[in-house]
Amino acid sequence: MKYLKALALGVPCVSCQWVLDCSEERTLLAPLPYTLPNGYSLELRCYVTAFTSPTKIFANVAIQVHGDAAFVKDWGQTLAAADATVIESVASSNGGGLRVDPAARFVLLQPLKKTTKRLGSLTTAGDAASTKPVTMEWVIQCLINQRVLNPMRMPQYHF
After folding, report:
1. pTM score, whole prediction
2. How confident is the model at residue 129, as a pLDDT?
């Protein structure tokens, strides 16, 4: 989660060799030669190197996060770091349906069987017909690629 939050904030992630070399040289070295890639892009089918200027990937994008309290907290913080408007939706213990906030453009669902069952009520209730249910992989890939991706492009991105 910390690596994803760093990507969301535009903080360069460096290898531990940078720390060792800085210690050995007794000065802060330029981080660029030690910068790690953002991750593997399913879109580009290769590792994507970090961008030099941080972007607010989810600026002006409302994302409802639905799951247990820990899931909502962790993913909500990561999305907020990428400038998303986060709408928290903690799953009830009685297994009630998911009420989609009409402001949400996407709904990030925790990958549980209970959540998948709630997906039926999300898509058929018509609460927010244009709201797209997305997976954690979609969020990760948006962070890696530094842009909002079409969740219908890859089966790993949507339910």
Report:
1. 0.86
2. 65
